[in-house]
Amino acid sequence: MPLGFDASAADPSDTASRNGDAHLCDLISDIDFSKLVALKPRPIETQRSLDERTLSDLVSPGISPLPPSRHEIGENFSMNWFRSASNTPRSLLDPNPAMIDAWEQLRRSLVYFRDKPIGTIAANDPVEESLNYNQVFVRDFVPSALAFIMNGEPEIAKNFLMKTLRLQAWEKRIDCFTLGEGVMPASFKVLHDPSRTDTMIADFGESAIGRVAPVDSGFWWIILLRAYVKATGDHNLSDDPDCQRGIRLILTLCLSEGFDTFPTLLCADGCCMIDRRMGIYGYPIEIQALFFMALRCAKFLLKPEAGGKEFIERIDKRLHALRYHLRSYFWLDFQQLNNIYRYKTEEYSHTAVNKFNVIPDSIPDWVFDFMPMKGGYFIGNVSPARMDFRWFTIGNCVAILSSLTTPEQATAIMDLIEERWDDLIGEMPLKVTYPALEGHEWKIVTGCDPKNTRWSYHNGGSWPVLLWLLTAACIKTGRPQIARRAIEIAEARLSKDGWPEYYDGKTGRYIGKQARKLQTWSIAGYLVAKMMLEDPSHLGMVSLEEDKKTKPYLTRSNSWTC
Ligand code: GLC
User: What's the mean per-residue pLDDT of the chain?
Assistant: First the structure.
């Protein structure tokens, strides 16, 4: 059965749905609905202590709130709510303290704009200096949005999508230079002033540390829009002319022609989740995988009759080239490592095997030990004479979810995670990159960044938020037990440790030295992972099957003739 997730999946003729309905009936008799009234999402202005919470408060976060009214979100979604509700109450029957705490904290992180919830604050840490953690980050909000959608509360995601679309229309300037029209903000902040209506400020990179524009924001926005439409069946939002224009503006930025000889997207360092200097400039895998996924999602969302046709054609061409390039040149397994190790250099012309003139001596020693006989992964970056062999979790998981990988490659990535469990999962899932840069290399590559010292933060730190991506990739590849093991490890500590942003150390044992507590995406990432494992049909929101209509796969030797 395809792992699709849409309103029609609630059709009573569908077996899974029928089972769900029976399950639902059982559960309905177990739920005290009088308690559920208190569960509607609410602004959390007052932070009550745990002791003050009532029993219904404690029960509430683990179960779905009352279904939103039909006129609010349409009939289709109400069906989905019931489907989702039929799965959720397992946590009610067997209340898990971490889940309960997570829901409570996630609701506390909601940000309101003119009385509507429009996002979640990055971190609610009462102790650490907030810097810009009191803002709504586009990338951080994605797992929050997914959690709320899965819980039958899609309005928040809709409000966010519409609000950020308005922000895209702002003129964006750094000093006297104007950024591309389609750039989406990295983050925004709501300013509450009792004497006037709420206002907003947004950051497109002009305030960010290092002044880098977030290339990933627009991609996450498109990916979230598709997830919302898939889950709710509400095409009205994406069909709206403003929304169509927003998608086209993002595409204009990344499909423009220039001096590029590769289909991958050339980026500045720090333009994505890793938002400070870490040597990912060039063609970082995180951006390339998100680019691929966003192109596929945009193809699903664009209306050909409303100016989308030309873009769909350009998307198809780019996808074809991008898929070939990434599958061939970014892929590394034992066989390929051995090929590179034996590369000849200075080859000229179309017949070159070592096309980018990679010097075998530049292969770092650790790769030879890290590479298992069984398994493989997309490396961090490929450009002339430079291969960044580091492992990056987001890029590899998104590659699986978008079907950028072949099914064999997807399986190999999972094999590698299992084979290198101690390195990548260890005592806290999940390493954002592997391995850490140390000593002289750390100095040169990070510019002596004290936050990115070895095995900390972006430099080999462990980020609980990545659990949701791992879980989705595990489900897609039919390996849910891997996710289950990882979640168990995280579950034992996350809530007790106060939902840190990241952990430090070779195995991720220590709470990160500058990690924020109550980091929202750590909370939401955990919730999404749990809910997805419990109801794998949620996967369809963030996963795309292989496009059967794509042109035949090229081989390296004939690539120059296409
Ligand atoms: C850090 C992360 C970035 C995240 C932000 C807010 O800067 O590197 O990816 O969006 O915090 O949580």
Answer: 85
